């Protein structure tokens, strides 16, 4: 077991992901920033959308989902396969989806929350702050960090932006999940820029591994400050009801 030094005695935020909270002492530490990292196709978007949706459905906690890779209407349609009616909770003011794609693509958007200026990081952060406050959000998900950082020229700029992002998130008082790419988790590189994990209180790695000539999904809690957690890999699946983790299942 990896026991971290900082004791965390505060509130836990339930993930809404069956089996996962058993691995992290009941949920994410309140008002923390957690990195969800993995290669393409590992389920990062589903993981963070489930966190926002279940927060509204099961716990009555408002949440903001910032989509920088897919249009809001595409997210809604994809999540319907799990029986999740995002629009229902949007109408109730429990979920806000920020469309950060349409304006980049030059496509007109009818969304309530549209990120017009993705070039200026300060404007981006101010806008997210306003949306969070407008629904009194307790949860926030940003999918994904590389979509914020890809226009930046060098590592120094990216580091500055990510530190600023983390400071603003902590000021908002939300529990945030941020997604990033893990280009080579087996080679030890678990985030695209090698910086993201240092601004996060926790790091959850999602990956695919070949076993018996088929790909299996596994999850590893790499870091969760103030939390006792296993350093083992646990199987998970994307089922008809979303992400399900098997904490007592086969470990491979």
UniProtKB/TrEMBL annotation:
PANTHER family given in the database record: UPF0273 PROTEIN TM_0370
Keyword Lipid biosynthesis: no
Pfam families per record: ATPase (PF06745)
Keywords for this protein: ATP-binding, Nucleotide-binding
Record bears the keyword Hydrolase: no
Name of this chain's protein: RecA superfamily ATPase implicated in signal transduction
Protein species of origin: Thermococcus sibiricus (strain DSM 12597 / MM 739)
Domain (KaiC): residue spans on this chain: 11-252
MF terms (GO), sorted A to Z: ATP binding
InterPro entries, A to Z: KaiC-like_dom, KaiC_dom, P-loop_NTPase
